[in-house]
Amino acid sequence: MLITNARLADGRRCDVRVDGERIAAVEGGLDTHADERVLDADGDLLLPGMIDTHVHFREPGYPEKETWATGSRSAAAGGVTTVVDQPNTEPPTVTGNAFDSKAERAADSLVDFGLNAGVTADWKPDELFARPVFALGEVFLADSTGEMGIDADLFATAVREAADHDVPVTVHAEDATVFDGSAKERDDADAWSAYRTAEAEAIAVERACAVGREVGSGVHIAHTSTPEGVDAANEAGMTCEVTPHHLLLSRDDLDDLGTFGRMNPPLRSEERRAAVYDRVRDGTVDVIATDHAPHTRAEKDAGIWDAPSGVPGVETALALLLEEARQGRLDYERVRDLTATNPAAVFDLPRKGRVEAGRDADLVLVDPGSPREIRGEELRSKAGWTPFEGWNGVFPRWTMVRGEMVYERDEDGERFGEAGGENVRLSR
């Protein structure tokens, strides 16, 4: 395959030759080979596919919310070519058998994937580390969906075990001891943000990083929602991620979102949101990941203390960031780095994350001049809703995983490829 007339994130115009699963050449003026399929990019933007290192595809246990088939279709339509699934399914991914069960279901994925192993009081590290685990985590330092919160001693043990097996650790950093219990007397949509305080995140990030330094191992802080948390990770020499919802939404949006805006960690003040955005822009934040957490409308349409936490986002993340770039608030190279190049580097995926010879042909073509309005009912996730209803996003013309088209959209409609995703820890 030869992709002609493409524009890369750094502005270069080039052709890209794909040979099998890999990129063979990235140059200007490549000659067409016999029997080679030619795709004219027509000057549009060619990016490495997004590596979403934080999704909850809910299978096994909750197929009414999401399956690997529906979640990966949503990913492909959003330009995501690799996803990393978290362990708080049912059963939780804390034993070898549970890991194997999830791996069987992941065979339905259109995109490549990683499977994280979880930590609970009865986890089986020897069984888990004998398997192709992507990372240990999301390790919960406070309860969230699945009630997998653990104490400080078990966290330290888990980090040491992971370091011994050269497995990364990702952390959900909130300290429940400094949650504000007085907020439980309220029933407005902002009560959840008042309850799970910004201080709770900053303290937990500092403690998680201290354990990492003591063990001599890096930790990656998941869905960092405050500038204090980002700074604590950065100052400790650790990495962190920010979600699109913490980047673009704040407590000011909760009057409109209601309980559909409940998440862990919660939305923060507009001032903190803006400060997090500054750190995304200047390079302090390493990764954008979605924490894609599909819940049904019926579940979310409840009281603030009863609704489950989380929002869907795997299909809209890259589109929203590209719209930010189109509006001049980010540049395309930063979007590329946050969504692909940096995740590949942080999590040791040498075949992913760049448009260059020798890398996997995980490619996304977008027309930055053609944004579309985001409508929840049109997204492929089973959730059928989005906190970004009515926002603009720049969505792919097509998405390719290791040289195979998994999504195409044109004037005749859209088409999806077949399931063929692979565990990236078996192929790196």
TrEMBL record:
Record-level GO cellular component terms: cytoplasm
Catalytic activity: (S)-dihydroorotate + H2O = N-carbamoyl-L-aspartate + H(+)
A Pfam entry, by short name: Amidohydro_1
GO BP terms: 'de novo' UMP biosynthetic process; purine nucleobase catabolic process
Binding positions for Zn(2+) 2 per the UniProt entry: 138, 172, 223
Signal sequence range: none
Organism: Halococcus hamelinensis 100A6
Keyword set, alphabetical order: Hydrolase, Metal-binding, Pyrimidine biosynthesis, Zinc
Binding site for Zn(2+) 1: 54, 56, 138, 291
Domain Amidohydrolase-related: 46-404
Known function: Catalyzes the reversible cyclization of carbamoyl aspartate to dihydroorotate.
Annotated InterPro entries: Amidohydro-rel, DHOase, DHOase/Allantoinase_Hydrolase, Dihydroorotase_CS, Metal-dep_hydrolase_composite, Metal_Hydrolase
Catalytic residues of the enzyme: 291
Cofactor binding note of this UniProt entry: Binds 2 Zn(2+) ions per subunit.
NCBIfam families found in the cross-reference section: PRK02382.1, pyrC_multi
GO MF annotation list: allantoinase activity; dihydroorotase activity; zinc ion binding
Similarity comment: family membership: Belongs to the metallo-dependent hydrolases superfamily. DHOase family. Class I DHOase subfamily.
Alphabetical list of PROSITE patterns matching this protein: DIHYDROOROTASE_2
Residues noted as binding substrate in the record, renumbered to the chain: 56-58, 88, 295
Protein name (record): Dihydroorotase
Enzyme class: hydrolase
